[in-house]
Write a structure and sequence with these properties.
This protein is an alpha/beta fold. It is built from eleven helices and nine strands. The protein starts with a strand and ends with a helix. It comes from Flavobacterium alkalisoli.
Length: about 290
């Protein structure tokens, strides 16, 4: 299934001063360069709330809750009042209001949504985060506010939803949009954007594996997908410059029960507000 639309939004580039620093460090010490890259990799950029998200920000009930597994606090958004709840999970450097167009559609269909600012994102305190923290937040939200009927995740949020289902998130159906897939591919792409050598990237991966005590591939979306049995819709744009569309095909091939929707011309973020995409995923969830 495919959907056509207009122009795409370009991917976010790593600022030039960071790339220059990375190259200088790499010339001095590969280990220092790898540690620097690791720090940049886990440091999201906090963007101000755009005007299109103000309605959801204003009309949602907001509260901070503690995530015991992380000893961190996050901002939670309650949008609408219904016993039928949908969990929304934003991507890297995103916010809990980023899926506002989808949230509005869910409200019209009689559902309420619960979303959150992951650690170091939006209104949540902190400077660093990673996917394991996204997953911990999802599982804690299920304990506090669940059960959720559906879960919808964008980009890293999509990867986190699949990994959370693997680790105990209970939903009837899920939708992942512009999801990344293989962790090493994501890190290699990041190292390439920094202008660093692949050897530095490999050392960064070893540092991550030492920190978490397991291989990074454990969290790859296609690996998590193999443990997911609920119906999943995989949505991706073939012009996505942040995450290649091959990720969607690969994830889809490892899911037991999935539908694949490929769009054109929407890129990585515009896809979240596209009316045809929202109609398609709503029909899938409510069927």
């Amino acid at each position: 299934m495919s959907i056509n639309s207009g122009s795409q939004r370009q991917s976010m580039a790593i600022p030039k001063p960071i790339r220059i620093t990375a190259k200088i460090l790499e010339a001095t010490s590969v280990k220092m360069a790898a540690k620097f890259a690791m720090k940049i990799f886990i440091t999201p950029i906090k963007f101000p709330i755009p005007k299109r998200e103000e309605k959801m920000d204003t009309e949602s009930r907001q509260e901070f809750i503690n995530i015991p597994a992380l000893n961190k606090k996050i901002m939670v958004y309650h949008y609408g009042e219904s016993d039928k709840k949908v969990l929304l999970v934003h991507g890297w450097s995103g916010r809990g209001t980023q899926l506002h167009s989808i949230a509005d559609k869910m409200l019209k269909k009689g559902y309420s949504t619960i979303s959150f600012d992951a650690p170091a994102h939006g209104k949540s305190p902190g400077k660093t985060s990673d996917m394991t923290e996204f997953i911990a937040c999802i599982l804690e939200l299920q304990k506090v506010y669940g059960p959720f009927t559906f879960a919808i995740g964008h980009s890293l949020g999509g990867m986190s939803v699949l990994n959370a289902i693997k680790r105990g998130l209970q939903v009837d159906k899920a939708v992942i949009i512009g999801s990344g897939d293989v962790i090493k591919d994501i890190m290699d792409h990041f190292i390439n954007q920094l202008g660093m050598n692949i050897g530095t990237g490999n050392l960064m991966i070893k540092l991550f594996e030492k920190k978490f005590g397991e291989t990074i591939n454990t969290y790859s979306a296609y690996i998590a997908a193999q443990a997911v049995t609920v119906p999943v819709m995989v949505v991706h744009d073939e012009n996505d410059t942040d995450v290649p569309v091959t990720a969607a095909h690969h994830i889809h091939s490892h899911l037991a029960n999935s539908q694949l929707v490929i769009t054109q011309g929407l890129g990585h973020r515009k896809i979240l507000g596209d009316s045809t995409v929202i109609k398609t995923l709503t029909q899938f969830l409510l069927a």
